[in-house]
UniProtKB/TrEMBL annotation:
Region (Disordered): 1-64
Compositional bias segments (type: Basic and acidic residues): 17-64
Organism, scientific name: Streptomyces sviceus (strain ATCC 29083 / DSM 924 / JCM 4929 / NBRC 13980 / NCIMB 11184 / NRRL 5439 / UC 5370)
Protein name: Antitoxin
Xref: Pfam families: MT0933_antitox (PF14013)
InterPro entries: Antitoxin_Rv0909/MT0933
């Protein structure tokens, strides 16, 4: 895997180990995008933030 993939895996592992801190980062990023776009993409940022949180909150199982 390339450097970017390795960094992404490390970030995921870190987020799983510190979910509260990861939540703060996701929330800050979502807020920043919403502020800079005037909430034009609010629904999309909400969806992306939820997906990010699921990626480190879930125990690796998928619901169907």
């Amino acid at each position: 895997m390339g450097k970017l993939g390795d960094m992404a895996n490390k970030a995921k592992a870190m987020a799983k180990g510190h979910p509260d801190q990861a939540d703060k980062g996701v929330t800050r990023a979502e807020r920043m995008v919403d502020e800079r776009t005037g909430d034009k993409y609010d629904a999309q940022t909400d969806k992306a933030a939820d997906a990010a949180r699921r990626s480190y909150r879930d125990s690796g199982t998928t619901e169907r």
